């Protein structure tokens, strides 16, 4: 954005703090913009004519983390681990079952539609599928201008001029204003979704698999665009992905999820250099290395996890990864490890983390060697 591009004006922004608009002051760089504690989302499973609840899918089952102003937090994990559900919870597109969500110090956990409306300016989401997230009956101009109309914001120079400027910011042409989504490629559609998310100058952008549906060459363009926009506009990102190469390129800190829980959280260099949770090690070992000589130099062997991911309706007792872990002991089966900070700076939920003293040093009998127990090796 050039110096001539002034931010949009809105008469509501002149109201004092605490007014009905919900406008909050910007936190200093590095302070927590978003704080999540004990966050849970359980989807009920019903059966029969009277829809009697017979169980629940524990999609997200107790998350604790914060997102600092100006950083990018990456969320990785296998399909079905609860990443997308978590993204919809922190943007309040889903109602949490339990826990607390604070945005700039304000509790937004159970705000209704009216209470969340002013906060939609500050919290936006980029959806996974660029083909279904855009209304095929609306033009690009109508799609990107929708946030202005919904929030009652009148940009300087008019809505059309601002939309055309946003299209240029994301690498599209102003002439695309009157075109329809079906006239664009997948990468261009994702850029339209990004322009819509940036329309109201948000403080936090949650990107749910922003490049998973795109070709590899287009993925690089969109990832670089997100990085450039962060530097230019001072955005804070939560990026959800299963591609560890993408997450490594864009993230400052990375959280690894497994069956609705965070098992490791640390900065990018520490996670890729010295992973401490066995599940993180298995994920990183599966990242393809194009140069065989480089792969041999790294000395990292592929770790094949045995068995399937357990059902989120009936997760294992204790550590949820113990049924597939080659380091699991009896305490892993009976006691759930807390997510605790270690001296290395990692936050790890593991009784026997790599490259660190065990939380349970006296428990050394491996489950995979016990008689009648067929756990992973």
Automatic annotation (TrEMBL):
Gene3D superfamilies recorded: P-loop containing nucleotide triphosphate hydrolases
Highest taxon in the source lineage: Bacteria
Organism: Streptomyces iconiensis
Span of domain ABC transporter: 34-284
Family as reported in the entry's similarity comment: Belongs to the ABC transporter superfamily.
Recorded GO MF terms: ATP binding
Name this polypeptide is given: Dipeptide ABC transporter ATP-binding protein
Residue span of region Disordered: 1-31
Keyword terms, alphabetized: ATP-binding, Nucleotide-binding, Transport
